[in-house]
Amino acid sequence: MFLLFFLVPNAFAQDKGKLMPFKKIILEIEQQHQVSFNFTEDNIAGLELVPPKKSLSLVEKLEYLAQKTHLSFENIDNKFINIYKKENQEPLICGYVFSNTDKKPIENANISLSNKTQVATDANGYFEFKKEDKNIFVISHIGFVTKKFTAGNTDSKDCLQLFLDPEIMQLQEIKANAILASGISKNKDGSFEIKPKKFGILPGLIEPDALQTMQQIPGVNSIDESVSSINVRGGTHDQNLFLWNGIRMFQTGHFFGLISAFNPNLAHTISIYKNGSSAFYGESVSSVVAISSTPETAEKNSFSAGLNMINADVYGKYNISPKGYIEISARKSITDFVETPTYKEYFNKVFQNTTITDFSDKQNVDYHSDKKFGFYDATLKYAQKIGLKDQIVLDLITIKDNLEVFQSAKVYDINSSENNILRQQNYGGNLSWKRNWNSFNTTKINVYNSAYELRANQSTSEGQIVIQENTVNNNGVNLENNHILNSKFTINDGYQFNEIGVTNLEQVTNPDFYRKVKDVLRTHALIAEVKYNDTISRIYFKAGSRINYIEKFKKYIIEPRAQFSYGISKSLNVELLGELKSQNSQQIIDLQKDYFGIEKRRWIISNNSTIPIQKSKQLSLNLSYIKNDWLFDIENFYKRVIGITTSSQGFQNQLEFVKTTGDYEVWGTEMLIQKKMNHFLTWLSYTYNHNNYHFSNYEYPIFPNNFEVMHTASWAGIYEKNNFKIALGTKWTSGRPKTSPDNTQIDPSNPTLIYHKPNSDNLHIFSQVNFSSTYKWETDNGIQYKLGISILNILNRRNEISEYYRVSSLTNSIEEVETFSLQRTPNVSFRVSY
Q: N or C of the chain: less Cβ packing under 10 Å?
């Protein structure tokens, strides 16, 4: 095969007089002269001849082919060439269909003839059909006004050029064009949509980071400033479903949560559902975050590179053909080369009160520490259209964080040292095929895999080695069909298969200990949903359900979903969302010092007993008013999640070692007031939520949730004019719950922690002021430059984000351990694009 691959083409090239299939000849002419041939297979079937010389011009080649065949060639502007028989051919009518706005060809337009025959246009907008006595036909396409045409005496030698006008409906917008910032909007199904390429600016952000941006939405918070701990309406981070091009991601952050793991300059659309998500989304009892890097329309070749005080990245897109392209992105930390002030603040924030800093706290003589930290992520996309109806897309992603810390100290002539290695990584791949059967029916199939690993390796001078490992392997197949019944009704149906395997390993030497547990769960799901959208009556309704079957437990779970929206008037809209969902996997904490106390959560899957299947139900009612660039939005919600375990909630009080199951119940209100004035946008948001645990088998069955932030208020002022943008904002939250010890019952000679009722107290108020600004300019040769600067926590406020207590082995007393948010943290970015 190797010899044939190289020798056969060479021999073929030398034999210039050899007959060649006619179709292959015109394909070579298409590539050499950048033209497109239109023909019917019957006219060229079985035709072979000696190809014309490549040195000939296009006109000379067409004359040569006309002489050697029974065919005629019609050259239209050296772009399109129609092929038809010279004689004895049945009369044909041909034409091209274009958009009247941008003059681009319209593909898949339907040509309906009087005898009920239908043909469709190709990628060049070309069509042809047999000539009849009555040459009347109708051209239709979604998004364009249907038109009737009469061909007259036109024949195939003189193709028609027809133009369709876009179908424009004058509708009053129900939702604001921009919410919080340009590039952020709210859809009729209740989801928030972020367009990073149209993203404006938000306080503290100079890049359209998906996970940082979503925290500006009312009801979305992070109690520890981490994108690896996003709490939506009181839920934990693992209860959110994060999808990147259809791949479930188990790692969402770099730098152990301070930076999003998804390249902010890559995504095209980010959809965020707090409630009422589509029935096609499973494995989540809280929100859904779906990130897509596939563009909605074809884009030109592009390249960009950027640098900030944490990482550098590159991005490139190249069209390998008119119907295919390849896209590559890569991002890597610069901490291997330089330690910037931003990196130092991040490092201090992440590693405070962990075993990394515990070692240095206990030593006060001749202490030395060497640390290496770095991260990277990379993506690859290949998209190719096949023919007029098919498209395949391949997506690959890799994310990795690596930390190495060596510490040593000499105390009383005794050497003590530790070597810590922590690695976290997530790989994923998705292959999808999409087929447009016609203008009303579409099928999409995708096969995906996601592999996650968290591994810690610790060795001490005493010869003890501790290894901890948590791995997840998730793969599956999704089938989705879309049927457009008419302009108002759409039906979607499909099937999903999902397999998840989780392995947890613990290995210790001196003394020896080994434990490895692996669990696998397979689920099947049938999905159906219907959508009704009437823009005249301003009614939107979408209802669906998924039926899950879990093989291992032989159990069925039905999950109905519904979204309803009604425009009471042109300015006032009401929205009702509801859903039932379930989840088979979750993150737990066995010990707070696992994985050095940095990324201490490990994934596990349900066993349907001590680790139940989590189930949620949620209902929300939204009222919005938009007029004169004012937006008033208020949403009341109720949410309950059952099947949670104490190990998944991160307790650091008397429940830290208690193993029991229960639920949490949260209700609240989210409000947003926004005003746009020319180039200035300002908004104020407020969120109230009341969130309680219910553990019926515990002595205190009801108490506040660890993730309850009862009051949250945010304000921002944003100015955007031409290429200059600036934003200033502040965020204020009431302190999260904490549990204090009962000092009256502590024996100083033998201190033992005895607590008050769980979460009966609160931390101090959290308050932060953030700033950001960007400026973009472009040179005459089309190269764009963008400079950005941001400052987090301008006032350098010392905000406490967690507090717990422990018995100190050094002082034999109870000590209070506090964790604080980022101090004043500047960042600067520079980007070049063309």
A: N
